[in-house]
Each structure stands twice: as C-alpha cells, then as structure tokens.
Amino acid sequence: MNRREMLLAATPLALGARAGTFPDKPIRYICPVAAGGGSDMIARVFSQRWGQLLGQPFVVDNQSGGGGVVACQSTAHAKPDGYTLMQGYVATHGTVPATRTVAYDPIGDFTPIGMIGATPNVLAVTSSLPVDTLAQFVEYARKHPRQINYGSAGNGSLTHLAMEMFIQASGASMLHVPYRGIAPAFNDLLGGQIQAMFPGLAATLPYLRAHRVKVLALTGNRRNPLLKGVPTLDEAGFKGFVAAQWYGAVGPAQMPADIVARLNETQVAALNDPALREKLALEAVEPMPMTATEFGQYIAAEVQRWSALAKARNIRFDM
Q: Is 10 exposed, middle or buried (0-12, 13-18, 19+ CB in 10 A)?
C-alpha cells in the first residue's frame, strides 16, 4: 500500500475519531444582543440543554452592536472547528443585510447548523382606533391615507419590514416612526402617538391581556394556541404573508460535515425535550427542528424575501 492509499484508508477512521471525541471542551455561543430580553433568554435555556446532550457546557457570549453585525463578524472570522457558534436570527440573516451593506455574507460566511424555532408577529393597533377586524383596519387605512402612524423597533427591523410588506399587499398608506427598540414603541402605541405596529407575539401578550391593545391578525401558516380567535394574515386573504422572528444556530463557513452532523443531531434532540419546549413557550417560540441543509435553504429564502421587499419599497440605510 503506497502513502496515498494509506491516507485514504485512514481518513474515515480519522473522521470517526473526530466526531466521536467532539466536543472535548466548552463551546462559545455568541448571542448578537445584549444580556436580558427574549433572544438572550432563548440562547441561555437552549444552549444549556444542548450542552447537556453534548457533554460540554456552552458559554454564552453577548456581542451586541450594529443589529448583529459585530457578532456576525466575530463568528465568521472564528476557527471553523465547532467551538464557536452563534445564534443567528431574522435580523442577522435576513432584514439587516437586506437593507444595508454589511461586512459579512449572510450565506457564504456561515455554516448552518439548524433552526431553533420562531414566534409570529402580530398586527397590533391602539385600543382607541375604531376598528376591530383586519378588514376594518384596511378600510380605515385606505380612507385615511398617511394619517396612521406605525411604529417599529428601528429602521430595517422585522417590525418595520413586516408592516411595509403589509402596506405593499393591502394598498394602505401609513407613515413609519422608527424607535430604538420595541419598548419605547409600545409606550407610544399605548399612548396613542402611533396607531399600529407589527411586534412579536411574546412582547404583545401582556398588553393584550390587559386590554390595552387590539390584535387583528398574526403571521404564520396556522393560528396560534395563545390567540385562537385571531386569524392569520394568510387566511384573511393575504396569501403567502411570511414574517416571523426566528432563531437558529450557525457557525463559521467550512465547518467539517461530521461536526455539523453531531451538532444538528443533538440540537434536534434538545428541541424534542418537553421541558425545553415549555421554557421556549414563555417567549411564544415554537420549536422548528430542521436538518442543516434545510436551515441553509431557509436562510437563503429569508435573505431573498427581505431583499426583494427592500428593493421594491426603496428601503436602504447605507450612510
């Protein structure tokens, strides 16, 4: 047997040994938002269970800034050995690269590991607005062009683009008021300074239960058990209306396939844990286990969807 034959024969054994021993030290899990809040909570509860199944702890590293750009650059430049991962989400791999030039490729610079889950967005209006259904809201908005102010968590956020998608689909005309986060936007929605918004379900529930806002519809392909009486936009006539606050794990580009498979296998197992699913439900997150390939396809579709909308609506925030 010559040297080349020996190397080829040894390769499957080497791969098997690597997959069998990975991981043998803690894994850094970059979270692209500051500590506290829903996204950080998801990162911590999910990575804790994931680490238990892998036999090594995850160390959550919060790297906020630039709508996730800082975290994405840090992840993309890390060694692709499986010991640095990131919790990507709809901003980092969807709305941000769709609306501005970023120093990373949301597809080419990353290895998809798998989806964690998603929570729907809801069309919420101030309780004083004289509408109770989606149809009434569309009619009201058409009859009062540019008299409805809608808020968002910031320029280029999902809350911004989801409403722009709705405006495009409905033919309504509204004015955008961007805020620095969803909390101040909610304050003005409650006070009546803005009349509508497209926040995530988890952030909306406390105000809905206190009867301080009205929810007219939600995104997704089926009704949510927390809002059984609220229709989806799709069933209300806005076919194919897709917008969700999703979360998933990615690593640097060119990670070894066997390590990706090991990570995905244990990730899916974690998502099937009833105790974890109960914790994710606190943020209205529905687990959505996928293969790494399926998640890569999902990311590509998100980048395409939001880029097409941003182009159609002339939404761009480059300096």
A: exposed
Is the domain covering 3-119+245-312 a CATH 1.20.140.10 domain? no
Instruction: State the chain's maximal CA–CA distance in angstroms.
Output: 83
What was the pLDDT predicted at 221? 85
Enumerate the domain spans of the chain.
Answer: 3-119+245-312, 122-227
Cα angle at 271 between 21 and 88, to 5 degrees? Answer: 80
Per-residue pLDDT tens digits for 261-311: 999 999 999 999 999 999 999 889 999 999 999 999 999 999 999 999 999
- In CATH, 122-227 is 3.40.190.10: yes
Reported as a single tens digit per residue, the pLDDT across 156-194 is 999 999 999 999 999 999 999 999 999 999 999 999 999
